[in-house]
Design goal:
Residues 87-114 form a coiled coil. This protein is an all-alpha fold. The protein has one domain (40-170). It has helices spanning 2-80, 84-128, 131-170. The longest helix is centred in the N-terminal third of the chain and has 79 residues, at 2-80.
């Protein structure tokens, strides 16, 4: 009979230890989930203004992109309507403006590459729970987005100059 009591006691002790471990594990999971919720709330609070600013910048950029496409199509149509003599007379001016537009587009691509790298850093910071670094990177992204918009506005200005030159030559 003592062997049976010993086995029952050992099983009871094993079950108690197993239950205690799972209870500790549940407590650790609950506190970990609570910490993640706190980090998530902090992240949302600190990035809300930056995200809304990014959304407005995206809208402005879409408008500029549509304007650039529209002007490009108008310039293309005006260029095809020019006579050979008018094209020859405008060749240097058109080439200069085209090179400036290409340079602006190249600078936009460079800034986009930097911005994409920063987005990766923001994602890594968010996963690591490093809100300060993530917010700083988001601020840099907003700055870079502003630089892209400035470059696109410069392209619009250059295309307007191109259009004025084309219209002046066709008149």
């Amino acid at each position: 009979m003592s062997k049976k009591k010993f086995i029952v006691a050992a099983l009871g002790l094993a079950l108690t230890i197993g239950t205690a471990q799972s209870a500790f594990a549940a407590t650790a999971d609950a506190s970990g989930a609570s910490a993640k919720k706190t980090q998530h709330a902090e992240w949302k609070a600190q990035t809300a203004a930056l995200k809304s600013e990014l959304a407005s910048l995206r809208a402005e950029q879409k408008t500029l992109t549509a304007l650039i496409v529209q002007q490009h199509n108008a310039n293309k149509a005006a260029r095809t309507g020019l006579s050979a003599e008018a094209k020859a007379a405008l060749k240097a001016t058109l080439k200069s403006l085209a090179q400036q537009i290409k340079a602006e587009r190249a600078s936009i691509e460079t800034v986009r590459t930097q911005k994409q790298a920063l987005w990766m850093q923001v994602k890594a910071a968010r996963q690591a729970g490093d809100t300060a670094t993530g917010v700083a990177d988001l601020e840099q992204i907003v700055t870079l987005k502003g630089q892209i918009i400035d470059a696109k506005q410069q392209i619009v200005t250059l295309q307007q100059s191109l259009q004025a030159a084309l219209n002046g030559a066709s008149a």
